[in-house]
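Subject: Sanity check before I submit

Could someone independently write out the structure tokens for this chain? I want to compare against mine line by line before I put it in a report. The sequence has 305 residues.
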Amino acid sequence: MNTGLQLGLALLLGALAAVTWVIIDWGAWTLVLPGRRQSGPKSTSTQTETKLTGFQRLTVQADQNTVLVGDVRIDPLSAGRTVLLLHGFGEDRSALFPRAQRLAEAHWNVVLMDSRGRGESGGQHCTFGTKEAEDIGTVVRDLQPQVGPAATFCLWGRSMGAAIALAVAQANPDPSIRTLVLEAPYTTLRSSVAAVLKRRHIPGFLARPMLARASRLTGVQIGQPSPLELAAHCHVPVLILAGSADPIAPAAEIERLAQAFPTRPRIISVPGANHQDIWDQGGPNLTAEILAFLTQATQEPGGKA
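---
Independent answer below. Compare away.
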């Protein structure tokens, strides 16, 4: 091989390595800092007034440096039944306003929180449940006196929120947490990131170094344990909401997750729905099925459906 060819090959390999590193670093920062939407008190209150009738602002001190912000509505007809809604990656609590309003109309207590680093909540980094599980456990404990001695909680999480809900259920073996609704759940964060990369025509194998870089940035192993690992230790009734056209959590991955639970969860697959619009596509019939499931799960002693 002549010198010119060797030099050209070396430059090409160097350029590929540089581009690969840029993609990995960009992806890692995007995961832990997904572009906070600064929904300050003024804009958020406007949204709340127009979309969340009867809700009040809620603040919870998650740790010494982090205050979480959300909305809460306590219904005197709820008998203590409370749904805590957990939004997905890159969202804030406003993404779940329609679900919250429908639950409130059915006389459930409803809570929405901006997860750390999102919306109005404090905190710098998104960790996909690693830190958020402890945060939401604190929210549940803080709410119990307000809801009353009959408090029973359902955690309804969408995508990343589903991973957080599973992490909360394991990290906080509180008997008041009776059931989980997992909307568009993924099995592992790595598989989810790989699926997103492939849709952008980026090699999926870069998900592993991307997550390793993101973990170094945050100082914690983000997304660990995975939903697949957490499912094996979940002993409350679970409802999985899946989209038949979901590229991030396809049917095979949903089935893999379902098989990991000690007791098989109920699965509702919404025809034609993708990762983002399961609840919207499901319409009133899906909402009615969710409410029926929640009612049964919260009525059974100890959450045994």
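---
OP: Matches mine. For the report I'm noting this point. The chain has ten helices and eight strands.
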